[in-house]
Structures are given as structure tokens and as C-alpha cells.
UniProtKB/TrEMBL annotation:
Official protein name in the record: Purine phosphorylase
Pfam families with a match to the protein in the record: PNP_UDP_1
Nucleoside phosphorylase domain segment(s): 6-238
SUPFAM superfamilies: Purine and uridine phosphorylases
Organism: Actinorhabdospora filicis
GO annotation, biological process: L-methionine salvage from S-adenosylmethionine; nucleoside metabolic process
Any one GO CC term of the record: cytosol
Length: 374
């Protein structure tokens, strides 16, 4: 049976230590670029890779993308603390995101601010598993002490600031445009965006409530609210890792090995029986022979055509199509002379097409091929 890897991410040292208390002893690991992880055991025989991505959505998006590309996990969990936006969600409670608002995007005009929200949902299967875990109460055996926090499922808002006010412009923005928000924090939008760019990788955001985002943060922090909240989130995240390991590994675009069929395979169909492969249904007998992987040059042309089709169908707007093609052109012109710069251009391209499964899959395969030096 495959020993699946679940990545758990944190932003603060105290959040990291709360998870580390569950997975030790650990083995250190270093990703390309110097990012560090510690790998330990999770429930149900899975492995857990723990990494601190730092504060802010930009940092969390960049490092989550790197870790997903290198570790190829079965799922990702982001565990840590946040501020409550609801009177019934109290210190120590746990909020599991149904979706995350990247809430500070918008247009500032002479007539006022016009919100342009981006929303990143939790995958249905992963959210269902989290609900089941909460109903079973099994996760509570991982809690320390006599704490009995409640678990809430709802929207989380992720901005670029630490919100500790009910009267600031950001607090008013949340109230007016995102008033169903359960909790507020600073990293979850970046994590979920990276997961969606990787092909809708199952990802769950778990936040322990450490303050009320109301100007009293220093007061609640002085009562050890952050370590307690981080510990409660870590207990739920640790138990959730074992449950997410039961999911089938998600398809994250075609790798070079996926596109190359090695050896032969004979399928027989008798009478009205049919046999199928992912690309269609065939009757009769077929033999598959080894073929060469798609050359990188052809992959560029294939992705270019896919972007054109997406633009023609209205799935990709004209501005994003133009920006995506510019990055693709840059990558193609640089691939022979500066592979690192070409890869960077392709990764920037991801931001324009992550929600389009077809082009995103082709892009993921192209990044893999170019990274392999083809």
C-alpha cells in the first residue's frame, strides 16, 4: 500500500511547533532554493512534511507552489491561528475554511472603492472529510489538557495586513462586502491559489481562534491565546492528515512518464463488451507500442493553441490571453539560453490560467519537461 505524503504548512513558529509536537521524531529535508521541511509520521501510516511558509499571501503562494512541485503530496493542510469575525466563535475554537476570500483586491475610483474579490474554495471531497472528522470526534484525542473547542465551517478572509480593528477601512470593507466571514488571517489565499494552480490539489485551511480582530489582540495574546489556538488547530490538522491520505491521488497534469506508454498491452473484447482508456472507448483488440515523449517545441505550440481556444470560447478574457501569450513567448525564446528564466516565465503564466484544467495541465507538463532539461 502506498505511503502517502501530506504537507502541513504554517506561518508562525508557534504554529509550527504545535504541529511538530504531533509528528516527531522527524527527519530534516531541504527543498531546492533552501526551503526546509521536517518529515515525520502521521495517523494511519501516512507521512507528514511540515514547513513554515512565513507571513503573507505572497510568501505562502510562492513556497506552497515550490513544495507542491517538488514533494508531489496527496494533500495540503494549512494550520495556524486567526481572528474571529463572529460573536459565537470564541477563543480556542477552530475554523475550517469552506472557501477563502482574497478580500483586498479592488478598484479605487473617484466614486469610492469597488471590490474585486477572488474566492478560492476548499475541494468538495476534502471538506466532506473534514466534516466527517468533526462529527466523529476522533480528532479530540489529539488535544492536550481539558480543552473542548468547537469546530466551525465557513468562509475565511485573507488579506495582506494584520487586522485588529472594527473601525479601520479594512474592517469596514469586510463588513460591507464579506460579512459572512468567520475568521480573518493573512496567508490562506496564497496557499489555496497555489493548490488550485497545481490541478485542484485537495487543500484544507484550519485556523484556531486567538483573538477577535477588534483592537484587543495584545490583551488576548498576553493570556497565551496564540499557543492554545495553534495547538487546537494542529490537533485537528494532524487527525485530518490521516483522513486525507485515504483520498485517491489527484491528477496534476501529464508528466513525461504519463505521456509515454512503455511496453505492450493487449485488451480483448468479446460480444458486446467494450474496453476503454481515458481518451475514449474502443471495441476490438488494440496493442500499444512505446512512443517518444512530446518534444518541448511541440508542447509550446500545443499550449499556445489551447490558450487560443480558451480565448475564443470566452473562458479566458482578452487581457489575460494577451498576458499569458507574452509569458509563453518569453519562455520559448529563453528556453535554449536561460532555462531558469524560461521556467520563471512559465510559472508566472500559471497565474492567468490556473482555473482552466486543459491549458493548466499542458503548462504543468511543459514545466516538468523543461525542468528535466529536454
Amino acid at each position: 500500500m502506498e505511503e502517502k505524503l501530506i504537507v502541513i504548512l504554517t506561518a508562525l513558529d508557534l504554529e509550527y511547533e504545535a504541529v511538530l509536537a504531533h509528528i516527531g521524531p522527524v527527519t530534516p529535508h531541504r527543498y531546492r532554493g533552501g526551503t526546509r521541511a521536517e518529515i515525520g509520521r502521521g495517523p494511519g501510516g501516512c507521512r507528514i512534511a511540515l514547513t513554515n511558509v512565513g507571513k503573507g499571501n505572497t510568501s505562502s503562494a510562492a513556497l506552497t507552489t515550490r513544495i507542491i512541485d517538488e514533494a508531489d503530496p496527496a494533500a495540503v493542510i494549512f494550520s495556524g491561528v486567526g481572528g474571529s469575525r463572529r460573536a459565537n466563535i470564541v477563543l480556542g475554537d477552530v475554523v475550517v475554511a469552506s472557501h477563502v476570500y482574497h478580500y483586498q483586491g479592488g478598484t479605487s475610483t473617484d466614486t469610492g472603492f469597488k471590490a474585486r474579490p477572488r474566492v478560492f474554495p476548499t475541494s468538495h471531497a476534502a471538506e466532506q472529510i473534514a466534516h466527517h472528522l468533526n462529527r466523529s470526534n476522533d480528532w479530540r484525542k489529539h488535544l492536550r489538557g481539558a480543552a473542548h473547542p468547537k469546530v466551525h465551517f465557513g468562509p475565511i478572509a485573507a488579506g495582506e495586513i494584520l487586522l485588529d480593528s472594527v473601525t479601520s477601512p479594512e474592517a469596514i470593507l469586510l463588513f460591507e462586502h464579506y460579512n459572512d466571514t468567520y475568521a480573518v488571517e493573512m496567508e490562506a489565499a496564497g496557499v489555496l491559489q497555489a493548490a488550485h494552480m497545481a490541478g485542484s490539489l485537495p487543500t484544507v485551511v484550519v485556523r484556531g481562534i486567538s483573538d477577535f480582530a477588534d483592537g484587543r489582540k495584545s490583551e488576548t495574546d498576553a493570556r497565551d491565546s496564540q499557543p492554545n489556538a495553534a495547538a487546537h488547530a494542529a490537533a485537528f490538522a494532524f487527525a485530518l492528515a490521516g483522513e486525507l491520505a485515504t483520498l485517491d491521488r489527484p491528477a496534476r497534469g501529464l508528466t513525461r512518464e504519463d505521456r509515454t506508454m512503455v511496453g505492450s498491452n493487449q485488451n480483448n473484447a468479446n460480444g458486446n463488451a467494450r474496453v476503454g482508456v481515458q481518451t475514449g472507448v474502443f471495441a476490438g483488440s488494440y496493442t500499444f507500442h512505446e512512443v517518444d515523449a512530446i518534444p518541448v517545441g511541440d508542447a509550446f505550440a500545443g499550449l499556445r493553441a489551447a490558450l487560443r481556444r480558451a480565448a475564443d470560447s470566452g473562458e479566458l478574457d482578452t487581457t489575460d490571453h494577451g498576458a499569458a501569450i507574452a509569458e509563453l513567448d518569453a519562455a520559448e525564446s529563453l528556453r535554449a539560453t536561460d532555462r531558469a528564466a524560461a521556467l520563471l516565465a512559465l510559472k508566472r503564466l500559471r497565474g492567468f490560467i490556473f482555473a482552466l484544467p486543459g491549458p493548466a495541465g499542458l503548462l504543468s507538463a511543459l514545466i516538468t519537461d523543461l525542468g528535466d532539461g529536454r
